[in-house]
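In response to a reviewer's request, we include the raw inputs and outputs for one of the modeled complexes. The two entities were modeled together in a single run.
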Amino acid sequence: MIKRKLVLSFPENIVTKPITYRLVKEFNLEFNILRAEITPDMEGKMLIELKGDKDKIEQSIKYLTDTGVSVQEAAKDIIIDKNLCVDCGVCTSICITQAISLDNKTSKLKFNKEKCILCELCLDCCPVSAIKVNI
Amino acid sequence: MVKTIEEINEKIKSGKVLVLNAEEIIDYVKEKGIKKAAKDVDVVTTATFSPMCSSGAFLNFGHSDPPIRMTKVWLNDVPAYAGIAAVDVYIGATEISETEGMDYGGAHVIEDLIAGKPIKLKAIGSGTDCYPRREIETYITKDTINQAYLFNPRNAYQNYTAATNSSNRTIYTYMGKLLPNFGNATYSSAGQLSPLLNDPYYRTIGIGTRIFLAGSQGYVSWHGTQHNPGKERLADGVPCGPAGTLAVIGDLKKMSPEYLRACTFHGYGVTIFMGIGIPIPVIDEEMVEFLKIKDEDIYTEIFDYSVQRRNKPSYGKVNYGQLRSGRIKINNKNVQTGSISSYSKALEIANVLKREIKTGKFYLTASVASIPLDEEIKSLDILSKEEL
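The model returned the following structure tokens for the whole complex.
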């Protein structure tokens, strides 16, 4: 059993197909959709975590690619540069999963990577550009 | 019982001074009472570290040979105001670069100067008999120029509004990024640590008050622009929205980038985080009544920044205890909050100032004139000469 975090992009013509369903049905994978959205030009994006047999995951990625879904490794990380951060905490108001918060005692910024779903909403909110994406 | 500034300074000199920060005084009063606190405590240090747009620096470059009367000046491609004497300029914090746009501005020039970095100076002049040169391009640092002092027309706001967004699109404001449908709310005050919230009627803070200004010892030079002491106040005298302001002055060459930081609010522009600390002498019991203020007693009003008008709809009042908890209710909806003012930096400054006073590096000054309590804020209407 392994876990992989992927970003799936669904082009307009397949956006309505029940593709994730087949990941369970045919490849016996457990999945957790961390984020999904359909952009105004009808392209679907999904941040998904797959859990299951290593070979099955590889097969599922092939299936996805063959269907027309573009698959990217969600290898990016949100990074907060503590040297730049001034601990104002304005980003904590943007962070839906509260991965970023201010410590109750010290009022300093804390970042819990485990909770981050890479939604990137915080990227353009930092006044000192301390929040970056590591690709 | 009344304590004078001279008596407090004597105590600083002899090393017997008791200094607390504006957070510590709250518990001290709770435990020991007003009377004892007024007797024991000599100074309470207050502070703020927040974006303050109305900031900038006067610089004098010295004269070149042959000399030039600079009529237009750029520092790292950021225009500086040159409509004063030949080689004097004012570089405003929010001015943006003509080549880099919002990524670099006057605030960055000021921060780079303080950090000792070289700055490209470009200037043009019209060429006169006494100032024949018409253009110059050279490099300066804070050490190669004459005076360099910050003169900030409006800093240290006594309270500020909270902002939210009722519309269905994300908006980018000086209060930060506001998500649609009340997606978040932001605020900007150090609350219980904030200088003017601890001296709401300006009893001790006045013109000439020595302050901690971005790591240096600066002074309150005037009341700030948009000073609005008449703002609605609660029973304890604390205004529930933007009220008094201070104009401050200090030597840029002695400042530290640790306590002054250039910043950019995406989609809005460049501004500057200013670190300001103000010591409040505990002159009497009444002063302690003001100094014991805590976040839960300080209220501000939440405004809808999606309404692009001078007067925005209000969603009611909220206190800083609630705001700092990270979550408030607006129209019965849970809304996440975030501050654009750094509480931890403010606390750090309050503690640095405390240490400086305790070790005899910082002495208090009595103000030479008071900050006005009767000034009103005006708005700008579009009128013809006849309608004035």
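As requested, we also summarize the result in words. Residues 247 and 371 of chain B are 10 Å apart (CA to CA). The helical segments of chain B are 5-14, 24-40, 106-114, 195-198, 285-291, 320-324, 343-358.
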